[in-house]
Write a structure and sequence with these properties.
Rossmann fold; four-stranded mixed beta sheet; about 40% helix; seven-stranded parallel beta sheet; alpha/beta; about 325 residues; 10 helices; 2 domains; 15 strands; globular; UDP-galactose 4-epimerase, domain 1
């Protein structure tokens, strides 16, 4: 039996694929390569190139697997919250319509297990410093809204058709578990810092007047490999027929500041720099950190990597890309 990983050629998805392989579980990948990379697909892993908007392709993928697919890890999606404000229709199409198509194809193929890659963006700006699964959901972008709608679709399909599902919410995913895999997003903090350093520019901090110890924003940063392990743990729980919560936060419980990240990057890379200070961005809260207690209980969730580990693994992958570009 195999698990289908949507978006399995992307940064997060490719780590999820490798986590399944490491535990001896077969996988099939579907990815349209809009942000993923064919080079991230391991040798010997079945790869279907195409979009979840292509209903015939989805139907064919399940049919050709001939009943071998036992569940789906749904990582594919348009993940840029800021850009989603300018492209709401595109965001809903990629994240809502695509999820609807996937669920329909699963129902037709009698596949009833799904692990959904959701987002802490569903919370918006919470009123509490420590976010739990019960914290009010107030998404502030089409991206966050689309992820919450995705969770609703799973919930409703669970009621209607007995779908077994869970949604994993997380904040900032960083690091690398394989030197050949890296975050290539043009919007995420680590790639922005590393690209600046590689290009000889000075990384930038947006605001140093927040109500935090060093004046910079505090957020959850979690290592991508730790995240991947919990996706597999959720899949194993479903395969075993064990009870699973509909939602889990994959959070650090304490968080780190942007200032701490900059200092760690300088120490790890050996590149001495003083970040440029730009004005704070509107709507950025001082501190958002999630509790991971529920996931620690059920999904083998633990922060196995220090901030130094996260920075070093990501920097090593970025340096390798300079020598061997995608």
């Amino acid at each position: 039996m195999a698990w289908l990983v949507t978006g399995g050629a992307g940064y997060i998805g490719s780590h999820v694929v490798r986590a399944f392989i490491d535990e001896g579980i077969d996988v099939i990948i579907i990815d349209d390569l809009s942000s993923g990379h064919a080079d991230f697909v391991p040798d010997g892993v079945p790869f279907v190139q195409g979009s979840l908007l292509d209903t015939e392709l989805l139907r064919r993928t399940f049919t050709e697997a001939a009943g071998a697919i036992t569940g789906v890890v749904h990582v594919a999606g348009f993940k840029y919250a800021g850009v989603s404000v300018q492209r709401p229709l595109h965001t809903y199409e990629q994240n809502v319509t695509a999820t609807q198509n996937l669920l329909a194809a699963m129902a037709e193929a009698d596949v009833s297990n799904i692990v959904f890659s959701s987002s802490a963006a569903v919370y918006g700006t919470p009123s509490t410093d420590l976010v739990t699964e019960e914290t009010a959901k107030n998404p502030e972008s089409p991206y966050g809204e689309s992820k919450l709608i995705g969770e609703w679709l799973l919930r409703d399909q669970g009621v209607a058709a007995g779908l077994t599902h869970t949604s994993l919410r997380y904040f900032n995913v960083v690091g690398s578990g394989d030197i050949a895999l890296r975050d290539t997003s043009p919007h995420n903090l680590f790639p922005l810092i590393f690209d600046a350093l590689v290009d000889g520019r000075t990384p930038r901090i947006n605001g140093t007047d927040y109500a935090t110890p060093d004046g910079t924003c505090v957020r959850d940063y979690i290592h991508v490999s730790d995240l991947a392990v919990s996706h597999v743990a959720a899949a194993r729980r479903m395969d075993a027929g064990e009870p699973i919560s509909p939602v889990y936060n994959l959070g650090s419980g304490d968080g780190v500041s942007v200032g701490e990240i900059m200092s760690t990057v300088a120490a790890v890379t050996g590149i001495d720099f003083t970040p440029e200070i730009a004005p704070r961005r509107a709507g950025d809260p001082d501190r958002i950190v999630a509790s991971g207690e529920l996931a620690a209980r059920d999904l083998r969730w633990v922060m196995r990597h220090s901030l130094e580990d996260m920075v070093k693994s990501a920097w090593d992958a970025r340096q390798a890309a300079v020598v061997r570009p995608l």
